Amino acid sequence: MPPSVFNALFLTVFLGAYLIFNFLPERYSWKKDKGRADPQGYWRKKKGRYSVYATAFGVEFKNQPIYSFAKETWLDRFAKLHGFSTELQTGDQNFDEKIYITADDPGFAIQFLNAPRARALILEFFRQGCKSIHSSGNFFSVVFPGDKEGFNALYDQMIELRDTLKMSLPERNSFWSDSFAVRGLCLQLLILTVMAFASWSFLLIQPRAVNIYVDQQHVILHGIVWGLIGIISLMVFTYMLMHGSSRGHRLLLKNGLLIAIIFPFSGYYALSILNAKLDGSTPIAMSRRVEQTVSHVHHSKRSTWRSYHLILSPASASEEIALPSEIEVTPEIYQQFKSGTVAHIDVSRGYFGHPWYKSIRPQP
C-alpha cells in the first residue's frame, strides 16, 4: 500500500475515533452492571497505562437538561473573577464555595435554586470522594477517582438524587434551543478542525520529508509564535462566544493539553506550507561546488531510515542569501551529484521572508 494511502486511512480512523468518543451519546461507551436489574445500572473505568484512574457509575435519566457538578477550583474562581465564566449561585454559601455548577439552561437555574434536598445529596457524594456528577441529557453519572468496585449502596443514592432532580428540574428543551450548547459545539468543532489540519500535515506531508528551508530553525520559531498567537486568539474568541456561560473556560480546560500541543504544530505547518505556496518572487540563482556527498543512517525505536546530504564549498562574500555548508536533499537529487560537481541552486525569498530551495540540480 502506498504510504500516502496508508496515512490517509490512518488519519480517517483517528478522526473517526475522536468523533465517536466525543460526539456520540454517552450511553454507548458504558457496560451494564449485572448486579443491577431494576433500575439498570451501568459502569465504566478510565484506564491509564498501568492503573485505573477513574470509575464512573451511571443510570438512565431521560429528557433532562445538560449540566454537571464538580469541586470548585482556583481556575473556576479565576474565570468567574475576570468575567470569563458566569456560574449559577444558589445562595447556599456552603454549597457555592465547594461546588462549581456547569449549566446554562434558564429553567435549570430557576428550579435548582428551590431544590435544597438535591444540593444536600450532591454535597454528600462529594464528601464520599466523588470527583464529578454529570447529566448528558439522557444519562446520569457519578465519577470517582481510582478503581471502585461493588457500589450497590451508591446506586441507591444515585437513584434518590436522580429522582429528586427529576422532581425539581424541568424537562430538557431541544439542544438547538440552548444557544450556549450550540456555541460550545461550534468551539469544539473549531478545535477539531485545527487538530485535523495538524494531523493531516504531520501524516501526509511526512515528518521525515526533506527540509526545503535555508534556515529551518527560524521557520520553527516563527511557526511556534503563530501557534501561540492562535492560542491567544482562541481564548479571546471563546470569551466573546461564551460570555455569560458557565462552561467556556471548562471547554478550554478539557482540551487544554490538545490545544497546547496542536496549535504550535499547526502554526509551524501553516507557515511552512503558505510561505512556499504563496511565494511569487523570482528565484535567486546560485552556484556552489559540491565538496562531498554524505548519507546518514538514523535509528528509532520502530524504524530505520537514511538521509542524504551535499557538503558545499565555502560561500563567497557576494552571495545575496547565505547558504549553509550542508544541504539535505532527496535520494533522486543525491544520485545526480558526486564530489567536484557544481550545484545550481535556485532560492526563493518566501512569502513570509523565509528563503527556501526551489530547485537543486547539477550545472551543465
Verbal overview:
The protein has a 7-stranded antiparallel beta sheet with strand order 1-2-3-7-6-4-5. Strands 10-9-8-11-12 form a 5-stranded antiparallel beta sheet. The two termini are 38 Å apart. It folds into 3 domains: 141 residues, no CATH class; 101 residues, no CATH class; 79 residues, OB fold (Dihydrolipoamide Acetyltransferase, E2P), CATH 2.40.50. 43% of the residues lie in helices and 22% in strands. The longest helix is centred in the middle third of the chain and has 27 residues. Helix 5 runs antiparallel to helix 6 and helix 8 packs across helix 10. The chain is elongated. About 2% of the residues have low confidence. It is of the alpha+beta class and 364 residues long. 24% of the residues are buried. Strand 2 and strand 3 form a beta hairpin.
What order do the strands of the largest sheet run in, or round the barrel if closed? 1-2-3-7-6-4-5
Number of helices: 11
What percentage of amino acids are in beta strands?
Answer: 15-25%
> H/E element string?
HEEEEHHEHHEEHHHHHEEEHEE
Main β-sheet: number of strands, strand sense, barrel status?
A: 7 strands, antiparallel
The overall number of domains is 3
Share of helix, binned: 40-55%
DSSP summary, beta strand count: 12
Structural classification: alpha+beta
Q: Average pLDDT, to the nearest integer?
A: 78
* Stretches with pLDDT under 50, minimum 5 residues: 23-28
Q: Termini, distance in Å?
A: 38 Å
Q: Evaluate the radius of gyration.
A: 28 Å
Shape assignment: elongated
